[in-house]
Sequence to fold (299 residues):
Amino acid sequence: MIPNDAGSDSDLPRGAERLVEANGVRLCVQTFGDPADPTVLLISGAASSMDGWDEGFCARLAAGRRHVVRYDQRDTGRSVVSPAGAPDYTFSDLIADAVGLLDTLGVDRAHLVGISMGGGVAQCVAFAHPERVATLTLVSTSPAGPTGSELPPPSESMRAAFADPAPEPDWSDRAAVIAYLVAGERLFTGPARFDEEAVRELSGRIIDRTTDIEAAMKNHWALKDDENPITVRPAEVTVPTLVLHGTDDPLFPLGHARALAEGIPDARLITLDGVGHQAPPARVWDTVIPAVLRHTDRG
Fold:
């Protein structure tokens, strides 16, 4: 649990969203806690804004004496936008954005926490720029390089959804887009523990603060190929690594997490019972937050 003397959420400094220049582009960022504390950089997944990291989750990490930073990756939230379906950047630019954001914030080394595609970004930063990374926490993600073993495929329901995707909504119709986002989240979370009311409320907030929701939903899936992509060799990742993974992840079944934990030297795996492909829900925060705080005491 969080130390008793860590202070309440209401006592913590919480920065307003602000636009900053990082790696030559405009990114939207928000911070929680004291900048003098160790920095935890939260990196969102594909098509996900900073809103995917719940404010309560950020505040509880900050209460454990961490300076927590969440941000909108390109084409999400209030950050720089490309035309829908035509992103003018590559995956390498997203990696450089994370490093550039640390430069802008004056952070020499940070604890990186990445989910899904954000976990791939975090792995690449840790591999290519280990001097900038104190620890690595990988959530609901997959190895960003060859593992030497075959990884399990997505669930049957996920494969069926990829083969026959839902029709696009009218992107100008807020209610239709909310319904589209809720249906997509239900697929990734799994029906057993799906909180439709909470997801619907979050979806509305995401739409309301996103410059171009169509670009946000499309562009990370349409990234151009890199001329010189970073190829992560897990055995050469040198920073302390924690792997957090749901037992019911339909996109990256648990074998992906085991491959990470076995491939990265001294990595530790914590499984989250009944959790799908999602940011850690509140019901597992009492497991996840102390684990992240202990892990980020290292490095």
